[in-house]
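Pair request: fold both.
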Amino acid sequence: MKNQAELLSSLLDMAEAMLMVGAEVSRVEDTVTRMGFAYGARHMNVFVITSCIMITMGMPEGEDLTQTRRVLMAGGTDFLKLEKFNDLSRRCCAGLVEPSAIAGEVREISSLTTGRWRMHLGSVLAAGSFSVFFGGSLLDGGVAALFALLICALQEKLLPISMNQLSFNLLCSVIVGVLTGLCTNLIPVLHLDKIMIGYIMLLIPGMAMTNAVRNVLGGNTISGVMRLIEAVLWAAALALGFMIAMFITGGGLHH
């Protein structure tokens, strides 16, 4: 019974870790179900929403084991980790991983980090490119790229101490928006809207909205609606923060 409880706990670890890296609900449920059957369960009942995971395993001896886990963090999107979790689940289903080793591999994959310079470089390229793409000058793109580095710094320092993603988006947009407004007021050739539209792409919850719609279309209505409402609130916090910043700085009135 102890080993079976540990296996169920490991499956919960797997499900939570997949949610944290952006996996859709249907993928998590299917993965955990397949792994449970691979390790001898008679039946699997898996229910996943963005904030809670419930798994019931029917064991060969006729007993049912149930565990529930609350998911407190919103997580993000990391396709490298998601690919590794998929590989782990396939190896488990092929009998290549001992049940006692699942939790360790999940922790090992979850601890992987992307090099800071890669994240910073990607943010700089994205912000600068979007700014120019939407009609900004090369100078606007360069300034947007610089503010992208500021956003990266805020994500590293401010996000861990923020109450939640909603409060972080509001604070981050106010801070970066005020500095952008001051910058455009001091340098009239800059375009406030073009700079903002460049780096705001780093904060818009596009993947969350996409997964929400996909969950709804896939029949996971509760999870989809919860994630969609969450993403809309995040976007609203961004919009409110930039509106506050423009009000404080005058909104680039020199244009």
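--- second member of the pair ---
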Amino acid sequence: MDTRAVFKAYDVRGTYPDQLNEELARALGSAFATFIDRPSLVMARDMRESGVALSRAFAEGARSRGVSVTDLGLASTDLLYFASGYLDEPGVMFTASHNPARYNGVKFCGPGASPVGSASGLDEIERLTRHYLDQPASGPLAPRASRDLTAEWVAHVHSFVDRSSLRPLRVVADAANAMGALVAPAVFAGLPFDLEILYGDLDGSFPHHPADPLNPANLVDLQRRVLATGADVGLAFDGDADRVFLIDERARPVSGSTTTALVASVMLQRHRGATVLYNLICSRAVPEVIDECGGVGVRTRVGHSFIKQVMAETGAVFGGEHSGHYYYRDNYRADSGIITALIVLEALARSERPLSSLVAPLERYASSGEVNVAVPDAPAAAARLAAYWGARSATLEEVDGLSVTTDDAWFNVRSSNTEPLMRVNVEARDAARCAATLAEVVAVLDPTSEAVR
């Protein structure tokens, strides 16, 4: 079995059962148990049907190496991260996040929700997985137990807001038949919000639309419902509910960059002069807002393992990504969609202004959003792009893909770590320049390419 097909920069991910099956999951379990060298770990899964068999096989592999397994059952990824931090245990989450139904995957973390990525152990886990595929572990099985940490997690999430400052708001959340349907009602219970869940039945076949809020087509139902009900805000969760995207009362999507700026301003009111992280594809408005609020902005690479590492090094109180991941120092430096949703709702309740008005000062530039471009040869396309813009005296930076700055625009192009695509993000001073720059970038990447948002 070719492990290279499923080991990515941040996790394991592939199609079930051809790329990721029970045999591989069992070897993964033995490999992770060997790697962590701890007596126990905590495990959870999302609603994908294949998760039942895969997580069971993984647990068997870990238990055969003498590591006991505490199974949380169905959970969001941020609940799993909380459990890892709360129990100080290594953690394993079976999910393929926003990917289609035929996919599944595994996210790992060390004790205290510490990151595990290609540079922090995932390469070694792959090596050990190949070993256990050739020589499966055997021996007495360590114990496996079930545990429900929902109540403890909900209390933890609530600790990020002042419940006395909340006021009645109408909220519509599109769970896309995924884990938001499980966690949002639990967190919102007892809060003064009128919560409506769209597509609240857990169904890993995603019968209504994919759990991928980055694709505007998947926001249409939520936008319609926000307008139809006069809701104050719409929340769109991805498959494992660690990401959230906002829809304002006019049914306009709020970008991940704008949400990062908004939450950064809130966190800097609470923690004067603190450090806040933002990744290199965030809007330029983000570091501007951090500076205006008296914070110290630190730019990072894209991806949770990098951001968590920098957060630990700098003591940053918060970090945001344009893709909808938001990290909190007091959440074991892990990301959480539902914590972010509550912080935004508290800000909305305090301001007594609509969300569109609250974020308007933060929306300073025209943005393309993330555009995915399929190209036959990604390295060659990136080289063409560098040559093209270098000849035009643009400023080039080759960190986490290629970032290019011109007089009136900037953009980043990077290869996807989970899909055969190049991801393009363009920002400019006005919409016309943004559109023209995006068209130019796509044409240089591959004149025959298909751009898919």
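Observation on the second member. The mean pLDDT is 94.
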